[in-house]
Write a structure and sequence with these properties.
344 residues, alpha+beta, Phosphorylase Kinase, domain 1, Aminoglycoside 3'-phosphotransferase, Chain: A, domain 2, 2 domains, five-stranded antiparallel sheet, two-stranded antiparallel ribbon, 9 strands
């Protein structure tokens, strides 16, 4: 069945975003009042390399542009994987509420329009900047000024958006369940259909050793239960280099569809995990606790555990990264991650 037919079965009154249908997109934008008759669409092209959503850069006849994003009942890159269709609505709520804070607003795209029924957001076009996934390539180091800005953003988010301070709540249960599957379960399922040796010869054996470590599996199961509990702190939920964009106005943080109230340690642990996998220098890693303002009750053990599970799931799971690591380097990372999960 064509994707548009699948979508219309569950969303009969919603607009289906298609960059090849400019007349349909024009009519939709005019109907919503987001486009004036004096403007026309020059082009609508793919924006970024995200996995989750349909995202287009729309350029108008006056050369102004914006980003339009639609979330559908599947993962855009993997249409066979179901996903909550309302994730764009939740991301919109995140931008609306956190945008009231000047620090968060300075590091975020401006939210321009929303269509809850069609699960569509229109946000500011930040330009054709590069995300930080270049860090995974040899010889690329994260500048301390950029790291300081990212941790300034994260500190402001975690400090100013706790349950006690917020009149809104974001549980995002469906996205959390989806993420939990790919963090805590899929990488350890021997029948998941992923041939790790196709990624790095010998990696399948490391995967087998990992999933047959019963003590480790108990630690991972306990951490999953913790992750799925409602926490006190509003999280970005996917704080890794692909969600960070260099722009003419400085670093920006995007793609908050995994946001929820949980453990602050999760966001920071994800960041540390990716800097480790990107082989960033020790000085960069050492700067994290200096630049991040830890909230009250922050657990160093939990921080390291979330770091460890993010490393394992990225090396052994479906959400692979463009990293340039050989088997020995991946083995060393996995050993370090296992020690983190054990609290060592």
């Amino acid at each position: 069945m064509a994707l548009i037919s699948r979508f219309k079965e569950t969303h009969p009154n919603a607009f289906y975003l298609d960059g090849n249908d400019l007349p349909g997109l024009t009519e939709y934008l005019l109907t919503q009042g987001w486009l004036t008759p004096k403007h026309s669409i020059r082009c609508a092209t793919k924006a970024g390399e995200g996995n989750m959503n349909k995202v287009l850069r729309v350029q108008l006849s006056d050369l102004e542009s914006f980003i339009i994003k639609q979330s559908r009942p599947w993962v855009e890159k993997f249409p066979d994987i179901p996903a909550p269709a309302d994730r764009a609505n939740i991301e919109g709520l995140f931008y609306r509420e956190t945008g009231k804070n000047s620090t968060i607003a300075a590091f975020s795209p401006a939210l321009l329009h929303e269509d809850a029924e069609s699960h569509i957001l229109i946000v500011e076009d930040l330009g054709v900047g590069s995300d930080l996934t270049y860090l995974y390539r040899d010889g690329n180091t994260l500048e301390e000024g950029t790291l300081a800005n990212l941790l300034h953003y994260l500190s402001a988010l975690h400090k100013n958006f706790t349950r006690q301070q917020c009149a809104f709540s974001i549980e995002n249960r469906g996205m959390r369940e989806l993420n939990a599957e790919h963090i805590f379960r899929f990488p350890f399922n021997a029948d998941n259909g992923l041939n790790l040796d196709d990624i790095t010869p010998g990696l399948a054996e490391l995967g087998r050793q990992t999933r047959e470590d019963s003590a480790l599996m108990k630690q991972i199961a306990a951490l999953e239960l913790r992750y799925l509990q409602n926490g006190n702190t509003l999280l970005h939920g996917d704080f890794y280099p692909g969600s960070m964009i260099h722009t003419d106005e400085g670093i920006k943080v995007i793609d908050a569809e995994f946001c929820f109230f949980g453990d602050a340690e999760f966001d920071l642990g994800v960041l540390q995990a990716h800097l480790l996998m990107a082989r960033q220098p020790e000085s960069t890693l050492a700067a994290i606790p200096r630049l991040y303002e830890k909230p009250a009750g922050f657990s160093e053990t939990l921080y390291q555990q979330y770091t460890g599970i993010e490393i394992i799931r990225r090396l052994l799971g479906l959400a692979q990264l463009p990293i340039q690591l050989d088997l020995a380097e991946k083995e060393a990372l996995l050993e370090n991650a296992r020690a983190m999960l054990a609290g060592h």
